[in-house]
UniProtKB/TrEMBL annotation:
One of its GO terms (molecular function) is symporter activity. It is found in: Membrane. Belongs to the sodium:neurotransmitter symporter (SNF) (TC 2.A.22) family. PANTHER family: TRANSPORTER. Pfam families: SNF. It is a multi-pass membrane protein. The chain crosses the membrane at residues 12-33, 45-70, 91-115, 154-176, 188-212, 224-249, 261-283, 295-328, 349-373, 393-410, 422-446. Keywords: Membrane, Symport, Transmembrane, Transmembrane helix, Transport. This is Transporter. InterPro entries: Na/ntran_symport, SNS_sf, YocR/YhdH-like. It comes from Azoarcus taiwanensis. One of its GO terms (cellular component) is membrane.
Length: 449
């Protein structure tokens, strides 16, 4: 069992395996579900442009910083921060960065799994012919009927968590990496088919215009904030995930180049999701600005009406499920790494314990939609509370801590060498990580309060 105790020396088997796992984490419900509806609500292409800027100036530097800290610490995010604070003669208060990261991952996974369960349930509906002939009312009723039924939500949340636990229990190479190598190519193929269908449908031109013609009059402060927040969420930052993933990373891997690859793939897939969804929406005269219901209410109307709609619906919700699974796997990893390193449990037992705890909290989240819809804490349901607590507090604060530690506490020369930068490029890196990215995070933090 000593192999289990020293698992922090576990490593990705190759750079490709790491890239796929990190991209799998980044590409999730945020890309397929949230990004398209945010575009729909926030004024189309102008939002996309601002989002891209946020990714470049804030998302990418924090991603690199998380990997760098994880790779230097070689442990779970809490022990990594403790170790780095000690070796750099800084206050142990930095440990809080690791604590809020892992706590954030735990809280997010509990409700992320509930939404992953919705995706699974819709896969079932597509197979069972549940979309056939749906009109707007029928699609609305299908969705609200599911939310109103705690048994159904519990079933799919449980199946979803069981899949995640099964994968993570098998370890970094046998579980995380293998799942990514299987699911990410499958996701790519499904997306290509769906975008291909979109091109052939009558709505592609309208979708392109919607996604790529900027209308700057729609850009408000709120839109900028939403773009910033999403840049954070979509790269799985501020949750200890990328730190945990970095702890399994070989010294030789080029962080900047790898981050660029992951960020590009994440963005391309998010935009491709828009190119899969909006043509169907426009070709069927549906409303692109339906918000969170865009995927679970609007699209099923189309799937219910068009030829081959059941198959398209199946492919679409499988795509959503695969994206959610690889992200949820990454959410469980930092918690498992922590339990494994701080208790006598081996990896399997640690995964089951961490997974069961998350599953249990998820039950409170799913009851928010029905039995406990009247149970309010600070005026919010449990589901909304978990969402707001993480997205407004834990994630930005963790991200801020990560970037500040990396920019101000690490030895400058060693960072410059690690990133392989010349003096000029390194001063750009420093300006971005010391000032621009932290200022960006702070702005989002205070304006969302
Ligand atoms: N990055 C994932 C997405 O875009 C979301 C996620 C958030 C994944 C938090 C892991 C952790 O959906």
């Amino acid at each position: 069992m000593t192999a289990n105790r020293t698992h922090s020396h576990a490593q990705w088997s190759s750079r490709l395996g790491f890239v796929l796992a990190a991209t799998g984490s980044a590409v999730g419900l945020g890309n397929i579900w949230k990004f398209p509806y945010m575009i729909g609500q926030s004024g189309g292409a102008a939002f996309v442009l601002i989002y891209l800027l946020c990714i470049a100036m804030i998302g990418l530097p924090i991603l690199v910083a998380e990997w760098m800290l994880g790779r230097r610490g070689q442990k779970n995010p809490i022990n990594t921060m403790s170790e780095l604070a000690r070796t750099h003669k800084r206050s142990q208060a930095w440990v809080l960065v690791g604590v809020s990261g892992v706590l954030g991952a735990f809280l997010i996974l509990s409700f992320y799994s509930v939404i992953g369960g919705w995706a699974l349930a819709y896969v079932g509906d597509a197979i069972g012919g549940g979309f056939r002939g749906l009109d707007a009312d029928g699609a609305g009723a299908l969705f609200t009927g599911m939310l109103a039924n705690p048994g159904v939500l519990l079933l799919w949340h449980t199946v979803f968590m069981a899949l995640i636990i099964g994968v993570v229990a098998m370890g970094v190479i046998g579980g995380l990496e293998r799942a990514a190598k299987l699911l990410m190519p499958a996701l790519g193929v499904l997306l290509v088919i769906l975008v291909g269908y979109g091109m052939a449908s009558g709505g592609f031109g309208a979708a392109l215009a919607y996604l790529f013609n900027p209308d700057w009059s729609l850009v408000t402060g709120e839109v900028v904030l939403a773009a910033l927040g999403h840049a954070f969420f979509t790269l799985s930052l501020g949750m200890g995930i990328m730190m945990a993933y970095g702890s399994y990373l070989d010294r030789k891997v080029d962080l900047l180049r790898t981050a660029r690859t992951v960020v590009i793939m994440d963005t391309v897939i998010a935009i491709a999701a828009g190119l899969a969804i909006f043509p169907i929406v426009f070709a069927n005269n549906l409303d692109p600005g339906a918000g969170p219901g865009l995927i679970f209410v609007t699209l099923p109307i189309a799937f219910g009406g068009i030829a081959g709609g059941a198959l398209l619906g199946l492919m679409f919700f499988l795509l959503l499920t695969f994206a959610a699974l690889t992200s949820a796997i990454s959410l469980l990893e930092p918690i498992v790494e922590l339990v494994e390193e701080r208790t006598p449990l081996n990896r399997r037992a640690a995964t089951v314990v961490a997974g069961l705890a998350t599953w249990a909290l998820g039950i409170a989240a799913l009851l928010s939609f029905n039995a406990w819809s009247e149970v309010l804490i600070f005026g919010l349901t449990v589901f909304d509370l978990l969402d707001q607590l993480t997205s407004k507090f834990l994630l930005p604060l963790t991200g801020l801590g990560v970037i500040l530690f990396a920019a101000w506490c690490l030895d400058k020369e060693s960072v410059r060498k690690e990133l392989g930068l010349g003096a000029g490029a390194f001063s750009v890196w420093q300006a971005v990580t010391r000032f621009i990215a932290p200022a960006g995070v702070l702005i989002v933090f205070f304006s969302s309060l």
